[in-house]
Amino acid sequence: MHISGRQCSPFLCRSHRLDPSDDEMYQRTSVSVMQKEPGSGVMIYNYSSRGFNIDGNKVFGPCAVLPPAILQWNVGSHEDITEESVSLFHMLEPRIEILVLGTGARVERIKPSVLALLRRKGIAVEVQDTPNACATFNFLTSERRVAAAGLIPPPISTALEAVQE
Questions:
Q1: Of the candidates 130, 75, 83, 84, which has an alpha carbon nearest to the alpha carbon of residue 103?
Q2: Which residue would you say has higher pLDDT here, 149 or 164?
Q3: 63-66 and 147-151 as β-strands: parallel, antiparallel, unpaired?
Q4: Angle 41-139-91 from CA coordinates, rounded to 5°
Q5: First to last CA, the chain
Q6: CA distances (Å), 18 to each of 10, 11, 12, 59, in order?
């Protein structure tokens, strides 16, 4: 290939597109995690409308993930998240840096007094829908951040109901 009179390798030119004839460079890359890195913390493997799979432990209903503990969390919905229900998160030693709250199928407003209490205790709060909260918690723990999660399982989606009929 020539560019302005100079010889150019097809792999070094910007205009070259990879195709199957380019062999190994065209193949997709995949990664398989064979074993979790030691000391990387608790991981949430999946969730359903009934609960969570956290490090191979099946947890039914809402839960508080306080590494290394996993506890049932006595809340039914985001409206039940009160100063009292979050007290277990700010009583921990060492103090958690960030609390990730998963409020179900969508992001819900948490009472301002609850957020103010956690802020006074020096805990950052991230409120998300439960699927994103699980991913955020996993990311934070993989980065070795001192994080905790309060998770409410999302209800069965209408898409799943339609498939089951």
A1: 130
A2: 149
A3: antiparallel
A4: 55
A5: 59
A6: 9, 8, 11, 47
